[in-house]
Specification:
The structure is a single chain. The protein is an alpha/beta fold and 171 residues long. It has one domain: 3-Layer(aba) Sandwich (Collagenase (Catalytic Domain)). A 4-stranded mixed sheet has the order 1-2-4-3. Strand 3 and strand 4 form a beta hairpin. It is globular and about 40 Å long. Bound molecules: zinc ion. Zinc ion binds next to helix 5.
Length: 171
């Protein structure tokens, strides 16, 4: 899955821009792994609007995530910044195709190594499920599509790149 990022040129800080680009590139690699695809496909989801894992995976990989639902093969991440000392990590407006990311959390994640990057990959996938495919969540959260896709992605991202880091340190 390719991720096409827009909106970053309006961000104030270069380090935020490059952090998001780096994580998005590594996230592409995660979503291209058969391990990740298999888990997305086999998971069970609540509030799934009639879609099973197989159908959800197909939606993601087709790239039909823009307003026109054009399966162009890439995911469009049109992202904007806001800064707020709150527990809102990110948000998406209904009917709007932009993703707003809280730089308060980005700053924390940037100091948290692979764990922080993996958390951002979770956020990107979570918001994608709201923005592109209109999946929602009410309690209990963790079986819903945005939470489940996000947490599977975070786990795979962490496992994949933590290992790479360990090899580099050991060499
Ligand atoms: Zn949400």
């Amino acid at each position: 899955m390719k991720i096409n990022i827009t909106g970053l040129d309006k961000w104030k800080k270069y380090e935020h821009q490059s952090y998001i680009k780096t994580v998005a590139l590594k996230l592409e690699e995660v979503t291209e792994s058969l391990k990740w695809q298999k888990e997305i496909e086999e998971a069970r989801y609540s509030q799934n609007n009639g879609h099973d894992g197989k159908s959800i995976l197909k939606m993601i990989l087709s790239g039909a995530d823009d307003m026109a639902k054009n399966p162009d093969g890439d995911i469009d991440l049109d992202c904007y910044e806001f800064h707020q000392l709150s527990n809102t990590v990110a948000y998406t407006y209904l009917g709007d195709y932009r993703t707003f990311l809280n730089t308060y959390f980005l700053n924390i994640r940037m100091k948290s190594g692979v764990r922080g990057e993996a958390q951002l990959s979770n956020t990107i996938m979570h918001e994608l499920m709201h923005r592109a495919f209109r999946f929602t969540h009410s309690q209990p959260y963790n079986q819903t599509v945005p939470y489940k896709i996000g947490s599977i992605t975070e786990k795979h991202y962490y496992e994949r790149f933590r290992a790479a880091l360990a090899i580099r340190i050991g060499a």
